[in-house]
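Action item from last meeting closed. Structure (204 res):
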């Protein structure tokens, strides 16, 4: 696998307190696997690798207005959002968790759907920087990671799933999602992506 850091972005999906934290609205769904797979620390290291190599780090953050006037409940998971009152803009648990706090130069894209491209400026932000390859990390593998990755593939991006930097509610859900993405994306590891980036680092 070849990854030019000048045209590659790490796309970090929904690493927000309500999604990945112990006190979040979705803690019962995702927190155990987030901890067992150590994905936050792994993503932090991977993000630093991207920055050092000259790549781009992008965070997608799902957030709705405090009155939910921009929340369209057309799926069970968005019904849970409505019922729990979570992920409202301005709430501390809607922010990116502290170990992954965006750095200067990182990009944060807010959106209101499960996937990161729908109704957001994500595609425009990536194309404005000349990004052609996307490496995916975050939560949940079978929801927002997979949903956003499928659109990325359709939009023509070289799509890479960093499997050991993602988590779902269960190991089985994670593995099923990874298997289903195998013909749409390169299934990779943190080590593979690190080696590909450093082999073609802009400093070389």
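Sequence:
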């Amino acid at each position: 696998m070849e990854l030019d850091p000048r045209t590659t972005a790490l796309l970090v999906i929904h690493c927000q307190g309500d999604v990945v934290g112990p006190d979040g609205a979705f803690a019962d769904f995702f927190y155990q696997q987030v901890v067992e797979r150590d994905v936050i620390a792994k993503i932090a290291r991977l993000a630093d690798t991207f920055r050092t190599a000259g790549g781009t780090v992008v965070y997608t953050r799902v957030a709705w207005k405090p009155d939910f006037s921009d929340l369209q409940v057309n799926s069970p998971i968005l019904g849970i959002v409505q019922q729990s009152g979570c992920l409202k803009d301005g709430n501390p648990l809607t922010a990116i968790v502290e170990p992954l706090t965006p750095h200067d130069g990182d990009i944060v894209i807010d959106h209101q759907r499960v996937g990161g491209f729908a109704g957001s400026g994500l595609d425009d932000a990536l194309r404005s920087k000349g990004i052609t390859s996307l490496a995916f990390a975050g939560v949940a593998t079978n929801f927002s990671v997979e949903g956003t990755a499928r659109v990325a593939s359709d939009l023509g991006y070289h799509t890479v799933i960093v499997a050991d930097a993602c988590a779902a509610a269960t190991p089985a859900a994670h593995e099923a999602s990874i298997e289903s993405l195998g013909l749409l994306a390169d299934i990779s590891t943190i080590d593979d992506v690190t080696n590909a980036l450093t082999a073609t680092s802009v400093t070389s």
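Note appended to the action item: The mean pLDDT is 96.
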